[in-house]
Design goal:
Layout lengths: L1 H39 L5 H12 L6 H62 L6 E4 L4 E4 L2 E4 L2 H15 L6 H9 L8 H15 L2 H7 E4 L3 E4 L6 E3 L1
Parallel strand pairs: 1-6
Antiparallel strand pairs: 1-2, 2-3, 4-5
Helix pairs in contact: 1-3, 2-3, 4-6, 5-6, 6-7
């Protein structure tokens, strides 16, 4: 028993390490992309520097029209610098958003894979029942922390299956019908027992719980797929 627990723990730790490495890889890749983009973008003051150079190298431009042209160039340089700065902010915001979306997608993918593996384990091992209390007086069955109200016929079917499980017996449809009806198995129809099992599963409601709790064994019959030590009849 300790071995599976250790294996499951190691599996969860391994999965956590994979997710951690994946998140680190995503953050590193987007950080590298942001750095390259910011480095390759032109300097926001490049245009202003060129305009200032024109002012310095052409101090002979004193005509009103020439001065007006230089003022327009200076204003254009300022506008270009502001626009480029806003572009940098937009790029950083988009990269942060992309990083958050990729991390969330990776985490959700890991959770989905973990859930699918857990469901496969449940399907292979059957439902894990720590307590099954059958109360005939209340027509109620207590399965772990779940309470199911059953009809009298469904309760009788479940009680017979529980008693057979405690004796390690597998009941065919005819044998189940014989125990419930009080007749001999030779006088009972196999389909009648199968109908009782179907009605019991329908009464339990949850299809997964019902299918895993009442197990069908090919060419043999029906039994409860739980440990007989957890069954209690009251």
């Amino acid at each position: 028993m300790p071995a599976p627990i250790t294996s499951a723990t190691e599996g969860r730790m391994s999965g956590g390490r994979i997710v951690g490495l994946g998140i680190a890889a995503i953050v590193a890749l987007l950080a590298l992309t942001a750095t390259v983009l910011l480095i390759t973008l032109p300097d926001a003051n490049a245009f202003n520097a060129r305009v200032e150079r024109i002012f310095m190298e052409n101090d002979a431009l004193t005509a009103p029209a020439e001065i007006k042209l230089l003022e327009i160039l200076a204003q254009s340089g300022t506008a270009f610098a502001d626009t480029l700065t806003s572009y940098r902010v937009v790029i950083l915001v988009l990269l942060v958003f992309a990083c958050a979306m990729l991390v969330a997608a990776l985490v959700f993918l890991f959770l989905l894979v973990t859930l699918n593996r857990r469901m496969e384990q449940i399907e292979r091992a059957g439902i894990r029942v720590s307590s099954l209390v059958v109360s005939r007086e209340e027509n109620t069955v207590y399965l772990n922390d779940m309470e199911f109200k059953l009809t009298a016929a469904a309760m009788e079917t479940l009680a017979v299956l529980a008693e057979a499980r405690m004796d390690d017996d597998v009941l065919s449809g005819a044998e189940l019908e014989a125990v419930v009806s009080g007749r001999t198995a030779a006088d009972c129809d196999e389909a009648a027992g199968a109908t009782r099992v179907k009605r019991l599963r329908d009464a339990l409601g949850n299809q997964m719980v019902a299918a895993l709790l009442v197990k069908t064994i090919a060419r043999k019959g029906y039994m409860l797929a739980i440990d007989k030590d957890v069954i209690k009849m009251v």
